[in-house]
Every structure is written in C-alpha cells, then in structure tokens.
Specification:
Strands 1-4-8-5-9-10-11-12 form an 8-stranded mixed β-sheet, with helices on both faces. The protein is built from 11 helices and 12 strands. Helix 1 (about 120-135) crosses helix 2 (about 145-160). The protein has helices at about 120-135, 145-160, 175-190, 210-220, 225-230, 250-265, 270-280, 285-290, 290-295, 315-330, 350-360; strands at about 5-10, 15, 20, 25-30, 40-45, 70-75, 80, 85-90, 140-145, 165-170, 300-310, 335-340. Strand 2 and strand 3 form a beta hairpin. It has about 375 residues and is α/β, with parallel strands linked by helices. About 35% of the residues lie in helices and about 15% in strands.
Amino acid sequence: MVEPRDYVSAEPFTFESGQTLPGYTLRYETYGRLNAAGDNAVLIFHALSGDHHCAGIHHANDRKPGWWNNLIGPGKAVDTDRFFVLCANVPGGCQGSTGPSSIDPASGQPYGIAFPFATIRDMVRAQKRWLDSLGIKRLFAALGGSMGGMLALQLGIEYPGYCARLLPMATTARESAQAIAFNEVGRQAIMQDPAWNRGNYPKDGGPRVGLAIARMMAHITYVSDASMDRKFGRKKKDGAAPDAYTFDVQFEVESYLRHQGESFINRFDANSYLYITRAIDHFDLTAAYGSLEKAFERLESETLVLGFTSDWLFPPEQNRAIAQALLRVGKRASYAELATDLGHDSFLIESPQLYDLVRGFLD
C-alpha cells in the first residue's frame, strides 16, 4: 500500500522555451527503502498516459494497482526488497504535478495554454531537482517505456555519471512523421471540440468528446492488428441486431474503444494531452546534438535497449538504432528484441521473458 507525496520547489524554473514558472510541484510515490549507502535508487519514468502510480495500491479496496505493478514489487523484476523505487508525474501532467490545469498564482485561474511549453529535457531537469531534494547522489538505474524511454535516454545524456544503468524500451531517439501525424490528429480532435475554448474550460468540463476521440485513436497505435483480431475479431456486441443499419455500437471492438475513451476523460486533462504529445514530437536527439553518436558521447551509463517485434509505433529498428549508435561511440550497450504480437504496449503486459531481461540487467 502506497501513498502519493508532493515535492514542492519554491525556486523559479526556466523551460527551454524561455518561459518561467515561479515554482512547481511534482507528485511522486516511492517503494522500498533507500539503503545506508544510498546506492539502490531506481527511477521509473512513465509514458504519455501514465503517472506516478506505477506500483502497489492506494487503499485496501483498490481494485486497480499501479500501471507497472507486474514488474515492480517485492521479489519482482524490480525488487522493492532490494531497491528504493521512485516515480514522479511529469511537469505538464495532470495527476498532481504542476501543469495546465494548475492554478496560476498571478491570475488565480488555471494556466490553460498559458502554461510553458515543456520538453523531455525540461521534464528530466525538473525531476533531477526533486531527486536532489531527497538526497539521492546517484541512481542505480532508470527505466521506462515509450516516452519513459525518451526520458531515460535524456537523463543519461543530461547528467552523465549520475545513473549507472539505463533501460529504455519500446522507444525512439526521434519520432517518425507517422507518429507525429497520429499525435496531431489527437490534438486536432481536442482543439476542434468547441468545449476546448482555446484551453479555457472548467475543471469538470472541457473537450470531453475530443479527448475521448484522441484516446481512441492513440490506443489503436498501442496495440497490433493480430492482438485486436484475437481479442475481438468481428464479434458483434451483445444485443446488436444482426442487420442493423445504424451508427450505434455493433462490434465488440467499437465498444472497447468507446470504453477506452470514456475512462480516459475521467482521469486526464485535455490540455495536458496537448502539451505532452507536443513534447514527445519535439524529442529529437539527432537534431539536438548533431547526430545520434554525438548525443551519446557524454553518456556513461551501461544501457540495455528493448524493442518489440510487433511495435509499429516505435518499431524495433528505431530501438536498435539507439543501441548501435551507443556501440559506435564505445559505450557499454546491449539490445534485446522480444517477439510479441501485442504491439507497442508489450512492455506493460505479463511477460516472463521481459521480467528475466530486466532482472538480469539489474543484477
């Protein structure tokens, strides 16, 4: 059982855009204990729709544990009997960390789209300040999937020597045009919803239809054709008329996607979705440093990159390119590719092979 905590920084924070916050809050959770030597801390980075609650439960009747509960816990691959595990909601998020839905002290109103544009590097720098406040001198490891993998790579580059091991998975050093296009469709679904109102909407209102559509579309990119077909095929929804020529839900897959959209709008802020997807779009290590090899020249962490064969959002070749660039500049790096048919979200599912790789790398 875990309880979220808040780190509050009263010092101004300047983003890469030049915009500034007078201070910020990061909501986080920890699992296990920091040892006397202070060398057993493992940082978890979450993906776009994730948050700080990556393991455990919040109360005895909590039916939904943290999003990586299958990987993190006593005796698990990331063993909380051995490691002090930490995870924070990124700045720009909507689960307790300062973001567009937070109150601007200057106006007394939510920031909305007046919130500073945050980059992956900004997110890492904000979390480093939090880690420093906890007295963590060096990380044993940092790991994450998708956007979490981007954050892990940026940490290794930004603070060489600070993290002994990096484990990015199902990620990329820069998004493809197709991935950017998917994000843009989601953003347009939100911004074209009249209730978006240029980012000014009440806490319990806003572009709920647009955000639900954005989530439905994005979720399709997280799974594979094979997994969708195996789970749903062309099965009709219970109660659907066999020859009903209507636009009501008729197929199980339609019902599933609508459920994904409806559940998402109850826990996520539309403006945060805009900001975080834009941060992912702008992540480009090649452009930022001149080449992927130059980006990794300062990195000192031993790195294991994991790709998944059925991931068509950040396909295996994009993950493999990261490990190859690390090796070209003489870094300690390995690449592993897991054969799955579950798509991009393979890093989140039950997988003994994944657990063995993570456990082995941390050992």
